[in-house]
Write the structure tokens for this entry.
Amino acid sequence: MALVDRLDRIDRNILAALSREGRLSMSEVASKVGLSKTPVQARVKRLEAEGYIRGYAAMVDRERMGEGHVAFVQVKLSDTRSAALDAFNRAVLAVPEVEQCHMIASSFDYLLKVRTTDIASYRWVLGEKISALPHVSQTSTYVAMETVKDSWPRASR
């Protein structure tokens, strides 16, 4: 049985409510899903314990933080045996500018989302950090001109 099969409609509604606004009180979540506070608290604790809820975070405006430059980088490795992949995976975790790293089934091996202050700082990160990661043989960069949709919910204004 797949893990997602363990979720009923109420669990899904709780997850939807909290993913839109993680600071809802249990009473507010309860009113949204049609239960009282106590069973909602028990369900949220279970969803946390089972890993459906991995944590809670503030949605930071990265532009205001001076980190508005986004680039997507295709990375091709010179070696794709398990040891080389593991070395790359461990090393990329230490690069704070890499916001996301995905192994890809394509003509390249990884797709990185890199966030920096501007193109000059991105160029430095690419040359000094990303290109120096284990087994990197080639990179291609795509600079984001505008973010049209992001997976994070928008804060209400």
Summary: The chain has five helices and four strands.
